[in-house]
Design a protein that fits this description.
With 456 residues, the chain is of the alpha/beta class. The protein is built from 13 helices and 21 strands. Strand 2 (29-36), helix 1 (40-51) and strand 3 (56-59) form a beta-alpha-beta unit. Helix 1 runs parallel beside helix 6, helix 1 (40-51) packs parallel to helix 9 and helix 3 packs across helix 9. The longest helix has 21 residues, at 95-115. The protein is globular, with a radius of gyration of 22 Å.
Length: 456
């Protein structure tokens, strides 16, 4: 696909910036509970605390929903992400918990949409783990078997059975979840939060979080918050402060691209009848999805490692976008003349074990790392569980299953996710594509379809 006219942004392509950004913190205040970070996790925690009649303050560096909350692919997943085969060996005791947690998280976001009447184009058509070759289909079947072994659900089927576009062999559809506009979802949760009793300060970048006696002091450019308890809901950005457990999150920069609007008759030729979102089973997955505005959004494929804090606010690398355009042209050859209209990106965090983590530092600082590239549901769900734990003093089974009191984690993920390793993994994926013939699968399928039409 053409990238010569692509517009690059450091914010989401899903939605425009809000026109009612709240003023920054100006002066000092005290509260019972402070939430740092206004993404889906921070908003969910603060909203729940306000619902529980708690004295809560939320601080956000930009505006609520600015970060990965609205920059992702808009997938509600009902199963854990990552390579389940590896995770089942690495964390066998945690996997049954994560399978249940992922399902509960999917239902939680669905309920959140209904409760607050959020118009976010949600379609509960499942997320598909797609295979672009027979060899990858074997991996899908193995992953599905692992998921079932730990109590999860999914439907394995051929391309035709799952309603996938030409260029895919088949896959597994998750039983929970579907597609939505994540920008609209985040904006809807923000509206609910601003209407609550929570005190929300946007444009309030936190420079430090430190414990002073039994109180936690949060410093911003123009004021300080002193709180009895603090929830760090900053995803990967919490690595800037000493109080955050070391190696809690490894920063990766990921990119989303969106095509120009495509004529309905051209989209119909793809046979993407389910309109389900698809994530491939490459080592560095690529996801594809149709939107309500008749565009195709594609994400990840390559990930770039953040080396130091503070993480830079940047726009996508045009070379990566060009590579993603080439992939889209190979996957959907009938659309090779279509342009990529926009590209945006942002930082996500990868936890030490590639699964959701929640924990506590001392008796009054709480944190979570629940993204890992599949966290649109898990992030707010885990944050809500933390909020209830703070109020009630009792943990749900889901929260207890991922809980940790660690103040430091092994550096294994940080060591693994080095730039040269990520580049090597990308090269391995491309080598596998070449030898398993997935690059030509869509073209051959299209040719066969044309041949059948010509004979009819």
């Amino acid at each position: 696909m053409r990238t010569d006219g692509t517009k690059y942004s450091n914010f989401s392509g899903w939605i425009d910036r809000p026109d009612d950004v709240r003023p920054a913190l100006d002066g000092d205040l005290t509260c019972d509970i402070a939430v740092v970070g206004g993404g889906m996790g921070g908003m969910a925690a603060a909203l729940r605390l306000a619902e529980r009649d708690q004295d809560v303050v939320l601080l956000e560096a930009e505006f609520c929903g600015y970060g990965s909350a609205s920059r992702n692919g808009g997938q509600i997943a009902g199963a854990p992400g990552g390579d389940l085969r590896m995770l089942s060996v690495q964390s066998p005791k945690k996997m049954p918990v994560m399978v249940k947690l992922a399902e509960h998280a999917g239902h939680y976001v669905e309920d959140l949409i209904k409760t607050h009447a959020i118009d976010c184009d949600y379609v509960p058509n499942g997320l598909v783990w797609g295979a672009v070759s027979p060899l990858m289909m074997l991996r899908v079947r193995t992953q599905a078997a692992v998921l079932r072994a730990f109590g999860g659900q999914g439907t394995v089927g051929s391309r035709e059975e799952l309603g996938l576009p030409a260029g895919f062999v088949g896959g597994m559809r998750e039983s929970i979840g579907g597609m939505l506009n994540p920008g609209k979802l985040a904006r809807g949760v923000r509206r609910a939060l601003l209407a609550s009793s929570a005190k929300v300060f946007e444009q309030s970048r936190v420079s430090d979080v430190r414990r002073t006696g039994r109180v936690v002091e949060i410093t911003t450019p123009h004021g300080t918050v002193r709180a009895n308890k603090v929830v760090l809901a900053t995803s990967v950005y919490g690595g800037e402060w000493d109080i955050t457990p070391k190696h809690l999150a490894t920063p990766l920069y990921v990119i989303e691209t969106e095509s120009e609007p495509i004529a309905p008759e051209r989209l119909a030729e793809l046979d993407w009848t389910s309109r389900s979102g698809i994530i491939t089973q490459h080592q560095l997955m690529t996801h594809y999805r149709l939107t309500e505005r008749n565009t195709i959004v594609c994400g990840v494929r390559q990930a770039q490692r953040g080396q130091s804090y503070p993480l830079p606010d940047r726009v996508p690398d045009p070379r990566v976008v060009q590579d993603m355009g080439k992939d889209l042209a190979r996957r959907f050859p009938s659309l090779s003349d279509v342009a990529i209209e926009r590209a945006w990106g942002g930082w996500i965090g990868i936890s030490p074990d590639w699964l959701s983590i929640a924990g506590q530092v001392g008796d009054n600082v709480f944190y979570s790392m629940a993204c890992n590239g599949h966290g649109l549901c898990q992030v707010p769900y885990v944050a809500r569980q933390i909020a209830d734990y703070i109020v009630d003093g009792e943990m749900s089974e889901d929260l207890a299953g991922i809980w940790s009191d660690a103040t430091k984690y092994p550096p294994s993920m940080a060591l693994l996710m080095q730039p040269f390793v990520l580049r090597a993994i990308w090269g391995l994926d491309r080598l596998n594509d070449f030898f398993n013939g997935s690059k030509t699968l869509a073209r051959r399928t299209r040719a066969r379809r044309r041949g059948r039409r010509g004979n009819s």
